[in-house]
Design brief:
The chain is α+β, with helices and mostly antiparallel strands. The chain folds into two domains: about 140 residues, Beta Barrel (OB fold (Dihydrolipoamide Acetyltransferase, E2P)), CATH 2.40.50; about 50 residues, DNA Methylphosphotriester Repair Domain (3-Layer(aba) Sandwich), CATH 3.40.10. The chain is built from six helices and twelve strands. α3 runs parallel beside α4. It is globular and about 55 Å long. The chain binds zinc ion. The site of zinc ion has 8 residues, from loops. Zinc ion binds next to loops.
């Protein structure tokens, strides 16, 4: 009799334990699954993943004051007038009745007023090239996934007929490829254009320009990312020694598929 009660009590315990297991599993599923759907949003917080900005909101002596507070964007491809060229990869356009600053997607030209290094090599040439091609022109503006950046600038692709001007800058060596997901529509096309510029020694990749940097400086990247840095960059210093990859020039880094860090602009 005592044995029988023990058996029944044991069956009851087993039954209750089964129910608890089912409840715990249900709770785990509900708690974990919603978190999985949000992972697509995290690319914006990757270290160094911010587009370098010359004059993001600083002094602007231009007669065309850009409105960066409430950017106006339009879907599809829009015809706009270029009212001013600021540097190789930044212009001001008239869109929606307002002057707005526009940063080209996927490319980075040398800066005229780098915070640490002043005017970078070829910055004036890049600006003059863009000015010659775009100033006063009507262009077609194509947006990608993100239409504005953290500085309130529009982000776009510049079309002149069939010519993608962002790509032209790369072919001429007046810019390097920089990729900022999710704006990656023409990334492969841009990398190919840059490879051609490197092979032909155009602009930034000319022997003369590379001679200024080759052998005097080194650059470091991480095996786990595609960015390269000056060794004193705060992001470079977080790369563990076993994950470091070193380059003797920007062209060597670019040929290996690396892009300049947005923080230290190597
Ligand atoms: Zn860096």
């Amino acid at each position: 009799m005592k044995y029988n009660i023990l058996m029944q009590s044991s069956k009851l315990t087993s039954f209750i334990l089964d129910k608890i297991m089912v409840l715990v599993l249900l709770w785990v599923c509900l708690a974990v699954l919603p978190g999985c759907s949000g992972t697509g949003q995290e690319s914006a917080s990757v270290p160094g993943n911010s587009i370098p900005s010359s004059l993001p909101g600083g002094a602007d002596s231009s007669p065309y004051q850009a409105d960066t507070q409430n950017p106006v964007v339009e879907d599809g491809i829009t015809e706009v007038e270029v009212v001013e060229v600021i540097d190789g990869d930044t212009i001001k356009i008239l869109l929606g009745g307002r002057v707005q600053k526009l940063r080209f997607i996927g490319v980075d030209s040398p800066e005229l007023n780098h915070p640490a290094r002043g005017e970078e090599p070829l910055a004036s040439s890049a600006r003059d090239f863009t000015r010659t091609r775009l100033a006063g022109q009507t262009i077609r503006l194509e947006f990608d996934v993100e239409k504005t950046d953290q500085y309130g600038r529009l982000l776009g692709y510049i079309w002149l007929g069939d010519e993608l001007f962002n790509e032209t800058l790369l072919k001429e060596g007046y810019a390097q490829v920089v990729t900022f997901p999710p704006n990656v529509k023409y990334t492969e096309r841009f990398r190919s254009a840059q490879q051609i510029a490197i092979q032909n020694g155009h602009g930034l990749w000319s022997q003369e320009n590379q001679a200024n940097v080759d052998g005097k400086k080194t650059y470091v990247g991480s095996l786990q990312s595609n960015k390269y840095h000056f060794p004193d960059c705060k992001w470079a210093q977080q790369i563990a020694p076993e994950r470091q990859i070193w380059f003797s020039s920007p062209s060597e880094a670019a040929a290996a598929g690396y892009e300049p860090c947005g923080t230290c602009s190597p």
